[in-house]
Design a protein that fits this description.
The complex is a heterodimer of chains A (444) and B (82).
Chain A (H helix, E strand, L loop, with lengths): L35 E2 L6 E2 L11 H5 L5 H19 L7 H9 L6 E4 L4 E4 L1 H8 L6 H4 L8 H14 L4 E6 L9 E4 L6 E2 L5 E4 L4 E8 L2 H4 L5 H28 L3 E3 L8 H6 L4 E2 L5 E2 L7 E8 L9 E2 L2 H8 L1 H5 L24 E2 L5 H11 L5 H5 L9 H12 L4 H10 L31
Parallel strand pairs in A: 6-8
Antiparallel strand pairs in A: 1-14, 2-15, 3-4, 5-9, 7-8, 9-13, 10-13, 11-12
Helix pairs in contact in A: 2-12, 3-8, 6-8, 10-15
Chain B lengths: L1 H17 L7 H26 L3 H27 L1
Helix pairs in contact in B: 1-2, 2-3
The chains are: A alpha+beta (444), B mainly alpha (82).
Chain lengths: 444, 82
């Protein structure tokens, strides 16, 4: 079947392979030896059935007239207050306050007390952008260098600015939402009267940032403490993201948010080699497992791209299943093999993954007022690096993934994974590092 | 500091084995080296896991790897003391 061309876009022939016409970075030293660089993502994508996303469940639920969402908010509010009054572990007033304080600069989500979608993200963007001094304002030429030099510099800046992983890929039209088009005629990203978003062809480079989530709090999911971790991860991401915009603009180049509303970041992260697609239908990093949150920036700064990675996760996830067992909504697949068959209207067709049941997930999180993240917290790959046991286990898991059922058993035996509900409040007495995570895990 | 102490202990024990009148066979030295490595690994898991706030993993690691190492070292001793 001929590949669909959207607008003036020339969609990539095979969405999962490396696009031609770009320079690629030397991938040596990026990861430990058991992570291989590969020329296509390890998730199978069928170009003939690939479906560009139109709208997702979250946006549907956020509609102002959505009665189902209103009813859920009412239930969630009552449950939340009951937990506070009953001092339930991880649901007390201080846990709730911690959750909300963790998204002070992010604040994007449903507020159960005002029954509305809250975001101050755009206000903050407008405020911080006043601090930029691009070279044309200073009367000096913009930064110039090779693509490799640019990527190396942006990665170093990204780590300094708060990211834990930085990768680079191309703006593949396949990964964009249906109403977004790449247009060689436009100079700036703009929205047309019929609702289409047009992106200049020059802005074909994508910077992908991965920011850590504090693990000790995240493994207390599903609770307000777990949510505080999730929101911290997103806020870390938000801060690194805002700073990166300013850095790129300070070099004299354009940097913009990924066009489209809630465009998925995972395909770009897969292409940039930040991780592989896991059983929970989300990205798993070889360094941080599921304890990472992603963001993307499009830019016209010419960058050397990264390659996808393979650390045996597709085979590993077949036998592990810890995330699926941890899901309180039973929304994750327990099938041994991934499938081409989506679950529900909000799944994206054309990829072979373990599809999650988005309705179940959202109904659970919506009615509990939780961001949950139990699946991400339970992942066997999100270990800290204080003992060499994890380095050995990860190498074994990557190179002999058939061991995954045994490794999941050992993971349970050693007490890893979600913290039992009655021990969630212990978090308040732990001696934890600044921001709750070890930041010394970046490049190998 | 723990690694230093383990190194001292390992060195002293190896020296003591070396001067025994009944020489340790080559596979006894192999067992001793492997056992020493396993004990060191067990302590690495113990200390690291406590830093990670994972007490169960700490004791499981020490018991599993340290215990295995202790058995290997004991076997090396048995070979020279038989």
């Amino acid at each position: 079947m001929e590949k669909e061309s959207v607008g003036t876009n020339k969609a990539f022939e095979d969405p999962g392979t490396l696009p031609e016409g770009f320079v690629y970075r030397d991938q040596r030293g990026r990861y430990p030896w058991w992570v291989q660089s590969v020329d296509r993502i390890t998730t199978e994508v069928d170009a003939s059935t690939w479906e560009r996303k139109v709208v997702d469940k979250i946006l549907m639920m956020l509609g102002p007239e959505n009665e189902e969402a209103k009813a859920q908010l009412e239930v969630a509010r009552k449950r939340m207050l009951d937990k506070m009054r009953n001092n339930e572990p991880g649901g007390r007033l201080q846990d709730f306050a911690l959750h909300y304080a963790s998204e002070t600069y992010f604040a994007a989500g449903v507020d159960i007390f005002t029954a509305g979608f809250i975001t101050n993200m755009f206000d903050i963007r407008a405020a911080v952008s006043k601090l930029i001094h691009p070279p044309d304002e200073l009367g000096v030429p913009r930064w110039e260098g090779t693509e490799e030099e640019a990527s190396s510099m942006v990665e170093a800046a990204g780590l300094h600015l708060g990211a834990s992983q930085v990768g680079f890929t191309a703006l593949n039209p396949d990964w964009l939402q249906a109403m977004v088009e790449i247009d060689p005629e436009v100079e700036e990203i703009k929205t047309t009267e019929d609702g289409r978003t047009l992106v200049p062809e020059k802005m074909k480079y994508v910077i992908v940032l991965g920011c850590q989530v504090p693990m000790e709090a995240q493994i207390r999911a599903p609770s307000q403490i777990g949510d505080a971790a999730d929101r911290s991860g997103y806020e870390n991401r938000q801060m690194a993201w805002e700073r990166m915009f300013n850095f790129i603009k300070g070099l004299g180049y354009r940097a913009e948010m990924m066009p489209g509303l809630m465009t998925p970041t995972i395909p770009f992260a897969l292409m940039a080699g930040l991780g592989e697609m896991g059983r929970m239908n989300r990205l798993v990093s070889p360094l941080y497992g599921g304890a990472i949150r992603l963001e993307t920036i499009v830019t016209d700064l010419p960058l050397a791209l990264d390659k996808p990675i393979d650390f045996g996760l597709q085979a590993f996830c077949r036998g592990c299943k810890k995330c699926a067992k941890a899901c309180p909504a039973n929304a994750l697949s327990m099938d041994d093999e991934p499938s081409w068959e989506p679950k529900g209207p909000y799944s994206t067709r054309g990829k072979k993954v373990w599809y999650d049941d988005c309705d179940r997930c959202m109904d659970y999180t919506g009615s509990q007022h939780l961001y949950c993240g139990a699946c991400l917290a339970a992942c066997t790959w999100n270990k800290d690096n204080k003992t060499s046991l994890h380095a050995v286990a990860k190498a074994l898991g990557a190179k002999i993934p058939a061991l995954s059922p045994f490794m999941a058993f050992m993971d349970d035996l050693f007490g890893y994974g979600l913290v039992p509900a009655e021990k969630r409040n212990d978090w308040w007495k732990l001696a934890l590092p600044t921001k709750g995570f070890d930041s010394h895990r970046t490049r190998s | 500091m723990l690694n230093l102490l383990l190194g001292f202990l390992f060195g002293i024990t190896a020296s003591w084995l070396y001067v025994q009148p009944n020489p340790v066979p080559w596979y006894g030295w192999g067992l001793f080296a492997l056992g020493g490595g396993a004990v060191a690994f067990g302590f690495d898991v113990l200390v690291g896991s406590f830093k990670e706030h994972q007490p169960r993993a700490a004791w499981m690691g020490l018991g599993m790897f340290g215990g295995l190492g202790a058995v290997m070292i004991a076997a090396a001793f048995a070979l020279t003391l038989r």
